[in-house]
Amino acid sequence: MHFxxxxxxxDGVLERTFTLGDIPGILWTPPSASASxxxxxxxxxxxxxxxxxxYPRLADRARHSAAEGLATATIELPGSGDRPRLxxxxxxxxxxxxxxxxxxxxxxxxxxxxxxxxVDLAVPEWQAALDALLSLPGIGGPVGYSGGMIxxxxxxxxxxxxxxxxxxxxxxFIPRAxxxxxxxxxxxxxxxxxxxxxxxxxQAALDLFDAFGSEEKSLHAHMGGHTGVPRSAGAAAVRFxxxxxx
Length: 246
What we know:
- This protein is an alpha/beta fold.
- The protein contains seven helices and nine strands, in the order ββββαβααβαβαβαβα.
- It has one domain (2-77, 115-245): Alpha/Beta hydrolase fold, catalytic domain (Rossmann fold, 3-Layer(aba) Sandwich), CATH 3.40.50.
- The chain is globular.
């Protein structure tokens, strides 16, 4: 991990950009973090739109977490931002858009081609980032994961024993394989669902929630579309992490 810039935000949060190999990322740490008083860490997931486009939302989530004494970090997803494109994923994304524009269902073959390559590539990168982040002074765990593509969160929660809690956003197409992985998830879960999200299969989201093997899991549904998540939902997610990570 190589840090490339740093700045102190007006609330005292330290924001540092880094590269992990050729993967860009950002780390935010609260003023309270130090080598003698390390803080828990939350990995901030996001959709594959690029860190530059997602930065305002990610920074807002990071600052709310920092106010509760939590560090946060994110990395660029494969095929996003300035990273090399993934032609097969781009073709599947174009096929998905054609189906939606034609009012046709998005079939399993398209969903698998769109989502599974990203899951296969992204999860090992998140784990490598976690290795590097936990080696830094001031970062001590426990670790949470929040948001982004739900299939990435499910795979990470099922494969990564260092995750103590996860907040998942039910707002993306779900491969059938993800349902089987969900049964192996035992991490405490806080799942957000926008009830009127036109781009989300509500029943599939409910079925996935039912499939999770976690003894502690809660579903938080809000009226409105994909971008209508109320600010109170973010505050509740931070409280969930505070309870499980601190």
